[in-house]
Each structure stands twice: as structure tokens, then as C-alpha cells.
Amino acid sequence: MSLLDLDTDQRAEFAARIRKDYEELQARNLKLDLTRGKPSSEQLDIGNPLLSLPGEGNFRDKDGADVRNYGNLKGIRDIREIWSDLLGVEYEEVAAGDASSLNIMFDLIAFAHSFGTQDSERPWSEEEQVKWICPVPGYDRHFAITEKFGYEMLTVPWLEDGPDMDAIREAVKDPQVKGMWVVPTFANPSGHVVSRDVARQLAEMETAAPDFRIIWDNAYAVHTLTDEFPEVIDVVALAREAGNPNRFLHMSSTSKITFAGSGVSFFNSSTDNINWLLGTQGTRGIGPNKVNQLRHALYFGDAEGVRAIMRKHASLLAPKFSRVLEILEKNLGEYDVARWTEPKGGYFISMDVLDGTASRVVELAKNAGIALTEAGSSFPLHDDPNDRNIRLAPSMPSVEDLEVAMEGVTTCVLLAAAEKLGA
Amino acid sequence: MSLLDLDTDQRAEFAARIRKDYEELQARNLKLDLTRGKPSSEQLDIGNPLLSLPGEGNFRDKDGADVRNYGNLKGIRDIREIWSDLLGVEYEEVAAGDASSLNIMFDLIAFAHSFGTQDSERPWSEEEQVKWICPVPGYDRHFAITEKFGYEMLTVPWLEDGPDMDAIREAVKDPQVKGMWVVPTFANPSGHVVSRDVARQLAEMETAAPDFRIIWDNAYAVHTLTDEFPEVIDVVALAREAGNPNRFLHMSSTSKITFAGSGVSFFNSSTDNINWLLGTQGTRGIGPNKVNQLRHALYFGDAEGVRAIMRKHASLLAPKFSRVLEILEKNLGEYDVARWTEPKGGYFISMDVLDGTASRVVELAKNAGIALTEAGSSFPLHDDPNDRNIRLAPSMPSVEDLEVAMEGVTTCVLLAAAEKLGA
Hints:
Chain A has 423 residues and is of the alpha/beta class. The first copy, chain A, is 40% helix and 13% strand. In chain A, strand 4 (152-159) and strand 5 form a beta hairpin. The longest helix of chain A is centred in the C-terminal third of the chain and has 30 residues, at 303-332. Chains A, B: This is Aminotransferase.
């Protein structure tokens, strides 16, 4: 029954039992980590053929260029073709880079900040104040970038089918609002997926700033936990049709497909935006790591090759997500002090605990040897106004460790709730 | 005899002969390229073992970390040890990155521009004007970066043992002068080497700006054309001893040791500077491509392994440089209309032709199917005030093509000189 419905004596009895559970938990001297969305060793093993690719003698791309030498800012045809096919977007509108799409996202903002976009009246650094829309809960590393540049972050809530469009439409009436973060597929941390309808509204809405940009970080575009792959929306085409061709900066990478920090990143956007980015990338350097692009193209073969790899990842990840959800339901379901998302893909489960107890849950877990992502980390400036959200990252530990950790976490959730309710 | 000493008739006769040579040159319909300092296919072949490294089963660094996963902004011990040993600098003062040291140089300036250095009173973007010292002739891609950020570029001449210290000491009295480019070893394009004495003067000199930085781009630190390797000066230690610990940003990379765009870059500087860089790199991303770092560490083995590779490069490059110098001497030596450097390493020969004729030489060569680096490209804003300097890049063509190209280039030099002298 709901913890909220217990009378004082029942609560005291409940609290005593949970305190005992917690003491037993502490006595186990655990050392478990649920903090980050890192792939496990078993997942990384899937990519081991990459360790000896492209293989001696393989150093020419499809266009005959020697990938061992300098050049080609936009990346080699081999990998760009596979990726545009996988995403279902225009080949010419995809550039391939080094390992990290986060690097490109930072640079997109850094270049707009120092030099302005092609649609800007001035560099963003010369604006009195730049504001940025941040759907919450969201990805901490996104918010860290806009924080670094001193941008005011306007939070809008995530709804089931995407960020709250009414709040966004209101916000973009302000010309200081220059952009927005969004993880459209299996969002970090909720696992929500932006619907085609919301994507179209984002493409079509009027914005006061002529250089308004949506960083559409499709980090989990093909990262399903089931047999089905989500639809990848060609937002660049949607925006072109809506007369806002430069609106979307569609990012993705192989980071949780092959190896985490040594894959290939992709930038899908209007030719105008790609030329704008490469214009400054061409001052910053001579071109991406093309040997690594060829290595990946040979490993994937084609878009179906990527999907085959993702099915292997799903077979390792899905049991972990299931087990977490089972334990949450088993231990917390009846007490009405927590709710959580049930994602069909991605790397996270977002859990809301009793208001005002998230920090305490993380502290209790830490004191029992279970590292959770810091409370508030899915919010700009790490400020969760309700102190309620906790991001769970089930990918890295073994199923056995995960079970132990989650049994512990649920004890902490209940103990924090009991404390909060004065028991 | 010197072209300048000929009388009118002799000049006319000379000009007629050279015009005929040029017509014959044009008739050959050449298509040769001496523009960029790219390694040749034969040089790239040296690195082919990298194409199947690190090899299946090799994914742990010396510290036991799985290089396939996220993390480690400073780079793995394996490659940092080899590199600090090779350069003779402190291990703790070396960070290893992705392929491009130019990327890091851009970022160092971009981060100082947007956020300021730890020694800055404010972000450089908020200075009324930032000025930057540019020894000339120098590296075009350096100048393109400071141009991009709108910095005023102050040229100082290269002397035999380094950039002109008197001019530099005068320039740094201005607090708007925030930094300086220099390629200390086998400089692009002159091949000059900065002496230990000049390096010490740079370390010791007083500067009005507390956040003055020297980007010490040691791109050719071990790129000898002889059996001898140049001394690598530990400028970070020199500057520490001089009480200016954060002055030098010492850059290098494997770009012309292994593959050109897919190697490992290195940043050697004070711990304070490394922490400052990694502070923002940690917002920009999660870490460098560590698989590629391990790949390189396994390929090199140790510092002596790097030197062994460089001897192979020298055996391919030295005959090309020799042939260029022989043809220059044979065809131009007696006429007193050109002088050139005779580098002991690096990728370029710097040639000064008769004042006011460099653009014409490049144009004549182009019209005969020989691509030379654009005249002026070794100067900020591509402005060679004397229109005299031409950068020759002998690395890429075969010796046979190089001979044909250089015979042609010398014809163009003589024809342009004859035209200039009114013959």
C-alpha cells in the first residue's frame, strides 16, 4: 500500500524495517557504479574486428583517394553513404568527422559564439544575452556546454511525444533565444522519443531569432532494446520544406555502436550549414581521421550491417533494463513514492522519487557503496527544482551486480521517503 | 654571370632564349604539384603495419584501462611515455590527443578568446584588439587561425638562429600582444632551427601581457634529412626556470611520422596550462581516440622506434631535397636573381626570387602545368610586401617528376626576372 497512506505507527514500523535493510546493505561493503552510460566490456567485444581493420593494403576510399594522407574535410564517401542510408537522409547533407559528435556540438556553438552563423547579425558573443532552451530532464554534457558559454538556460518539460511545444513556441518569441538542445530518440535520461508531429512543429514554428538552431542530438538513433528500430525523421528535409532550411543540426555517431571514444561522428544538416561548419573546420585543421572512417566502413559493410550490430547490443542490454524495471516494480511498486520510465531503447532509465529526496537517495546509496549519478545532474546547473530526479544507467555492470545495486537503490529510495515523511 | 650585370643586348638575348625554353616547357603539357607538404605514398607505406594494429585482443593500456571505452582526457600512459622520452620532456607535462595538433592550437586560441587563460584578466574577445607576433616567412595555416579571430598580425623576420629577438622584445612591450607563432625546428618554410640561446631569451623576456603565450609548433621535431636528430629544447622547463611557467605551448604530432591525418597529437606545457586546456576539453568531449594512441604505442615500441621510422623517411626525402637544390644551383646559381635555404630537415625549401616577381613566377609555372604554393602564402593575409618568397614542397612527387618540375620552375624564375628587368 502507498507509503503516504500509512498511519504514524505503521510508518514507524516500516521505517524501522527499512533502516535494518539499509544497515545490512552497508554491511556488505559494496562497490558498484551506475553513474554513466558506458557500454560494458561484452558490448565492446562486439567491435573487436575493428582492432585489426582496415588491414594491410586497405587505404583507398571509394573515390580512389589515399586515406593515409591529408585532406577531405567532409569525410570519405564509403562511410557517408552507409550512414545517410542508415538514417534515411540525403548523402550530400552528411559530413563524417572524428570520434565525437559532442566535439562537433561544442564547436557549432563555439563558432557561432565567436564568428556568428551565416544567418546571424553578429557573433553570439556580442549579443547582450544568449538564451537556450533545455528540455528537462536532459543530458548533463549538453547543459555543461551552454553553461560554459554563459547562456541562460530555459527549461521546458519533456512530454511523452517530445518537449513541450507550447512552452517552446512561447520562448522562441524572444530573439535572444538562439537555440535548443534535444535528444530526439530514446532521450537521455527519459527514453522518450520525439514524434514526427512534434518534429514538424519544431521545423515549422516561427522564431524571433533568424539564426535559431536546434541541436538534434540523435545519439541513440538506432539504439533499440527491442527487435524494432525507431523511425529516423529527416528533420533537415522537414525544415527545408517549412522554409527554415538551416534550423536543424542533426548529430549522431558510432560511439555506442563500435568503441565509445574512437568511432566516427556525423553531422547532417543543410548544405549551407555544412559549408558554414567546414569553413571554420578548414581553419581548425586539415580533415578528419579518414583511416578510422574506412575502418568503420569496412566493418559495417552497409546500413544493415549497423543494424545487425545493434541487435547484438540489444541482446546484452535488454536483460539489464528488464531486471532494473522488475526490481523497481517489485520493491517500490506498491509504495507510491517513485515512478520511472520504461524505455524501448537508449542507455538510461529516469526515476522520479518523492519530492525533496533525490539528493538523499544518492547520498544513502553512496554511503552503501553504490555510485549513482549526482542528483540534479539532468538539469541545467545541476538544479532539479523538485530534487526528485535520478538517472539510472544499467549498461556497464553485470546483471548480477545490477541486481545487487538496484536492490540497494530501492532500499535507499524507501528510507529517504520514510525520513521525509517523518518516520 | 649575374643577370643584373648584363647590358641591354645581352639581356634581350638571354630573355629570348628563356622565352624559348618556356614555350618548350608549356608544350609539354605538364601536370605537376609542388604546393603542399604532403608525404608521398612511399613514405605512407612505412606506416602500413598500423593498418592492422592494435590487433585483436589488444585493448588495455599500461594502467589496465580498456581503451575501447570512454575517458582519460590526458591520453594513455603508453604513448605519453614514448613521446616524453622522445622529446626529452617531463612525462606529466605531456598530454596526448587526437590526430591533429593544429586542432589543439586552434582550440588553445579559441578557448582563450572565449574564456580567457588562467592568467588573463578577461577573455581575449573582450580586449579592444589582440595582436600576435608572426615570424615570416611562416606557416600559412597558423596565420589563417589568428586572421580568423581578427588578431592583428605583427611580422618579425626570421634570422638564422630564430626569429628576430630585438623586434620581439620591442613588440611584447604592448599588452595587446598576447602571443606568437613559431615553428622552432626545420621551420616552415625556411628550415631554420631556433637555437637554445634564442629559446632562452624567449623564455626569459618580459612581456606586458601576463597571459602572453608562445605556440611552439614543433611539427618537425624529429624530421631530419640527415643521420643526426636536432636537439629538442625543453622550453617548458626553460620558462619555468625563468619564472614564466605558462609561456610555452609546445605542440607536436605523428602526422608526418605515421599517417598524415590519423595520428596522435601532443601538447607539452606546464601542468597549469594542461589543466586549463583539459578543463574546457572536458566540456567539449569525453576524451581522445585512445585506441589510436595504443595503436601508435604498439607500432613505435619506444622513442628509438620513432627515430628508426624517421630514418626511413629521411632516406626517401633527402634525395628529393638534394635534387631540388642541385637544379636550383645549376640553373640559377650564376644569375643572382634567386636565393634559397638548404634545410637539414622538415618539408620545405624557401626560395626568394627577384623582388616583385614571385607572383609572376607562380603564374608562369601554373600556365606551364606546374602548381606552386600561391605567392605570399607564407605571410599573414598572404601579403608578401616584397613579392619575393616562394615555398617549395619537394616531398610528394617522385624524383623524376620533381626534376621536371624544378627545371620548369627555374625557367619561370629566369623569365620573370628578365621581364622585370625590362628585357
